[in-house]
Design a protein that fits this description.
The complex is a heterotrimer of chains A (about 350), B (about 325) and C (about 350). With about 350 residues, chain A is an alpha+beta fold. Chain A is about 60% helix and about 10% strand. Chain A is built from 15 helices and eight strands. In chain A, the strands form two sheets. In chain A, strands 2, 3, 4, 5, 6 and 7 form a six-stranded antiparallel β-sheet that branches. A two-stranded antiparallel sheet of chain A has the order 1-8. Chain A is elongated. Chain B has about 325 residues and is mostly helical. In chain B, helix 7 packs across helix 9, helix 9 packs antiparallel against helix 12 and helix 11 packs antiparallel against helix 12. Chain B is globular, with a radius of gyration of 25 Å. Chain C has two domains: about 230 residues, Rossmann fold (3-Layer(aba) Sandwich), CATH 3.40.50.300; about 100 residues, Beta Barrel (OB fold (Dihydrolipoamide Acetyltransferase, E2P)). Chain C has eight helices and 20 strands. Chain C has a six-stranded mixed β-sheet, sandwiched between helices. In chain C, strand 16 and strand 17 form a beta hairpin. The longest helix of chain C is centred in the middle third of the chain and has 18 residues. The two termini of chain C are about 35 Å apart. The chains are: A alpha+beta (about 350), B mainly alpha (about 325), C alpha+beta (about 350). Chains in contact: A-B, A-C, B-C.
Amino acid sequence: MTGLKTFITRRRGHGGRWHWTDVASWIWLIGGTILMLGPALWLLSSSFKDPAQLAEFPPTLLPYVQRVAEVEGFDTPLPLYTVTLPGGETRILAQIRRLGANAQMVDPADPALRISVPISQRAPLREIGLATANYTDPFLHFDFFTYLRNSVFVTVTATLLTLLTNSMAAFALSKYRFRGRDAVMLVIVGTLMVPLSVILVPLYSVVSRVGLLDSLWGVILPTIATPTGVFLLRQYMLTIPDELIEAARMDHASEWQIYWRIVLPLSAPALAVLAIFSVVWRWNDFLWPLIVLTRRELYTLQVGLNSYAGELNVQWHYILAMTVVTMIPVVLVFILLQRFITTGIAGAGLK
Amino acid sequence: MLPFVLAARVLEPVLALWQRRTGHAGMIAVFLIPNMTIFGIFVIVPLVLNLLYSFTGGAEILLEQRPWVGMQQYERLLDCQNHLQPMTCREDQFWRAVHNTARFVLSQVALMVTVSMITALILNRRIAGRGLWRAVFFFPVLLSPVVVGLIWRWILQREGLLNLIVVRLGGDPVIWLNDRFWAFAAAVGVSTWAHMGFYTLILLAGLQAIPRDLYEAAEMDATPPSRVFWRITLPLLGPNLAVVLVLALIRAVQIFDEAYVLTGGGPGTATMFMTQYIYEVGFASFLRNPGLAAAASILMGGLLVVLTLIQLALSRRAERMRQR
Amino acid sequence: MGSIALRGICKSFGGIEVIHGIDLEIANGELVVFVGPSGCGKSTLLRLIAGLERPSSGLIEIDGRDVTRLGAADRGLAMVFQSYALYPHMTVRQNLSFGLENLRMPKAEIAARVAEAARMLAIGDLLERRPAQLSGGQRQRVAIGRAIVRNPTAFLLDEPLSNLDAELRGTMRAELAALHDRLGATMIYVTHDQIEAMTLADRIVVLRRGRIEQVDTPLNLYNRPANLFVAGFIGSPAMNLFRTEARGGRAVLPGGIDLPVPADGPVVLGIRPQHLHPAGPDEAGIPAELRLVEALGAETVLHGITDSGEPLVAVIDGQPAVTRGQRLRLAFDPADMHLFDAGGRRIG
């Protein structure tokens, strides 16, 4: 226990008392944690609230669901309320319907007796619970499943193609000397600085000319020749000793075998970093799919989500649930592969 | 993965044959062509076409159907009586976007560098659970802009969490995103929230590369903490800090998605930035004008090229410093 | 003045104790060397004295004043780091004056002190260079210069020569000894190199696993090691040790050498390789078969194995005509013998 205490209270410097900077650091870190994680947790909690609860102000911290009871003579379960009767007595009653400022209530134990109660005198009886319909409905009644499938297809295909084509090019650019190699590298480094937003119009016309408008391939292909990927892999492959390749040639390996059997496996760490980033990039892509895809059934999650949120009659309970679903893969990648990602950034300045 | 492995198996003898006939040169071509083709079609060609588009007019998307108009698009973009007053410009939306972007870049980069610098300095202390804290601050970086925008729209809405806090503290609820000032502040704050973890990580890596014994030597030299920061930490972090600064600038100039999802550019044009202007003029508006969008994107691209060249020079210097 | 005293110093990291109750007095002007195998706590002990670490318990006194709770800045000591820890973005001059500026010393005096240190260390023409533009030996001088300008109560040197090549190390060792003579200041010097320890030290502190094994002058350590560890650690090649049984005041070694010993029960007999010589015809000697002969010119190192399978090393002057595989008997003067009890402590 003292070990834990010294671990937590360990500071720069040595022994001695708490310095004000130690206090300030902890305030910053704890405040920062609330600010960084709070919004996502708030989203998660809200996504399990039913529409009535979402419309409430002030909102509750946790999601609640209305308690209901089966009452004889009614087909569907009725919502339960705590009612304060004129005599000051409180009872738990089920509501049959609301009529203006009054509600018609019934005692579940005595279904014959109807009581009319002013709505100001009743409070819903709730318990912590999850409105899972927010999650199931978008899959069952909207195109959400289609969006999800489109996003998965785009992400997986683009990532695999990125790894393959970029690693082939990186291999050629790192392990052979040929005329024009430096020129190719210069072009690649030069285009590292060309963001999508700068070539939006002509890229659109090129994609339309090759007939890929309103096609998921129109989303995938322009992204897979990322100069960043070639650059990252080449830098890594340069560290693989050339002697290894010469030894393989002495062993009669063909050039393709050298690439596929030797250089590729040895580049696994760099490939892993690129794969992780490619998955996150493609999953999160928004502007380009927004431009290329106009038919709803081709939307990716990000575009679909934005279009739902942009509709006049915003159904927040669905939007919130779908946002959580959209977030899940990235959160999983983050939790499982955090170390790879942080070293990738610290090493290569990727994002 | 399997299809790739199978394809590689099948390709092996074919490529061995090809190598026998063409030698290394043929194989280099095989390795380069897939990437270079895609790269050429979707990056190089558009780059060249962009210039051509900016000299043409009309609403057609196919280049051959577009009339040549020379410098007209640029003239239209740049024609202003007073560049500081968007209303006096012919293309007042563009200048509003330019002004908004400039204000955004200045405030967001200042906020971003300050916040991530403080966080990196704190994480560099001998603090318990450093990896965990680092992960916490990094978490939003991976979220998609759409998710970021929606999360904050939900918090900033009239019945949202922020108003709950405001009311609890005794204030009146504000419709944050309908207010010109607050919507702009939200765009700045939210984009900082989403990306600060990235810059924190770069700065932290820089701080950790400073040898510990330099600090111990400074301690033996009886150096006051503020002097340690200004004379040792900052100069040695300098190159990393410069890279972060320029990188944040480049990204801020291109701000689009999270702000777009958060505010849609509104209220009015309070949060319309350059990329959104290009997107709307090029694709989304009724009076779409690809030539104008291309001209605007070339102006923005020029700015980015300058910034990137600075960044490359700085990161090369950082690399040299590290090798020493 | 620069006397330093350690009283019952203990230090633990994360619940693991690495220094177990060190008591030591260092007199003003003395050059004390901490020596021991890696992980013995010698660097930690130096950092505790410096104030870069705080002891878990115990007292540190400088000139009779308790400084245990004082920070490194307030102890008036200067340290030379193993890596030199020169500020890479400052010139040599800035490196030297940085600590003096912290003390708000007048500019003229700073300049004078820097010039004096530069003259003493012959680095006057390097003052405007940065550390990256210096050679290893030059960096070493600058690091020492940074300590000298402070005019400290004592100098702490943490393996200062370990990053230099062998030749330079020899030169710098001599310069350090000269510097100590000239400055007359207290110095504490940490090293794992026993030649540095033997040549530089007024007194050597031999450390093992966070405890002091012996404190004495270099020659006393060599001549009268207090225990088996010191006997094995000081001197190269290491002392030959024979485990045997003493009965009735006598012990017997391989080859029938019968020696009087002031003990009873299991003992360890030690004899330095330099004290062995080939036995004369009627001299008793330890028989051994030579496994390796290293002829170094001035001397020859013989690695042998006794009949009972124990290794035996002897250093013979000159170039004796011996070859590998040859059997030899090695004799010694009983006065050169070291005797230890079963617990490893010296007897007599």
